[in-house]
């Protein structure tokens, strides 16, 4: 008795066709490895978008996109963005996109109506500002704050100017080696120790403490948000080698989990340690019984 092969999804057929062109370019040396990786990832992303809803292969392709993207950052990137910030951007893209969409919606809703008279009545005001800060959106956090601090301006004008500068110029997932983390962090510590507004207003003090790297585990709503915040607010130590920086990120990743890392995150950990051989072995083990995941990578 013969079995008819399961027909391939059209999106998968297109992926196979586009992938063949990418790898053919590599064999002919007409395409750099970096360009080929980017082109292959674009083909994978297009496959996910075009795939039929409910397709079991969708999660496999998404995982392949994420791991390939991380390999691009670790092995092929020529961007000036520092690794902790680049990894933070990777985490937000592949883990936190839904959270960021919800946070942006909350920001827009508050932006449309918040004022000095309404901020205390809106239970989402301070939580939204805190989440914006933790996620690296200091400009948006200041925009909401600036709408409710007019009565403080005459008495605390220097304090508010300093706070604005810290939020607007805080590290983001796009920051590079030109960012002076030491000066920025020193300014935070100075305000915490000496500023009258920071010493008298619990909300402002909490924001400064978050910027200094305190309480992140208490206010982050997910392990990946906590990892991003630590990548943003802790010293990036730009002078360190990539493998050493990768090991520092591994420590943050491990600390964010209360138990053993899940299989996929273990692969991420190995890649951050630049142990590509072990990472591929884990990928092969994860795809035991099916070659789909392994073959996509």
TrEMBL record:
<dbReference type="Pfam" id="PF07575">
    <property type="entry name" value="Nucleopor_Nup85"/>
</dbReference>
<keyword id="KW-0509">mRNA transport</keyword>
<dbReference type="GO" id="GO:0006606">
    <property type="term" value="P:protein import into nucleus"/>
</dbReference>
<protein>
    <recommendedName>
        <fullName>Nuclear pore complex protein Nup85</fullName>
    </recommendedName>
</protein>
<dbReference type="InterPro" id="IPR011502">
    <property type="entry name" value="Nucleoporin_Nup85"/>
</dbReference>
<keyword id="KW-0539">Nucleus</keyword>
<comment type="similarity">
    <text>Belongs to the nucleoporin Nup85 family.</text>
</comment>
<dbReference type="GO" id="GO:0031080">
    <property type="term" value="C:nuclear pore outer ring"/>
</dbReference>
<keyword id="KW-0653">Protein transport</keyword>
<comment type="subunit">
    <text>Component of the nuclear pore complex (NPC).</text>
</comment>
<comment type="function">
    <text>Functions as a component of the nuclear pore complex (NPC).</text>
</comment>
<keyword id="KW-0813">Transport</keyword>
<keyword id="KW-0906">Nuclear pore complex</keyword>
<dbReference type="GO" id="GO:0006406">
    <property type="term" value="P:mRNA export from nucleus"/>
</dbReference>
<keyword id="KW-0472">Membrane</keyword>
<keyword id="KW-0811">Translocation</keyword>
<dbReference type="GO" id="GO:0031965">
    <property type="term" value="C:nuclear membrane"/>
</dbReference>
<dbReference type="GO" id="GO:0045893">
    <property type="term" value="P:positive regulation of DNA-templated transcription"/>
</dbReference>
<dbReference type="GO" id="GO:0017056">
    <property type="term" value="F:structural constituent of nuclear pore"/>
</dbReference>
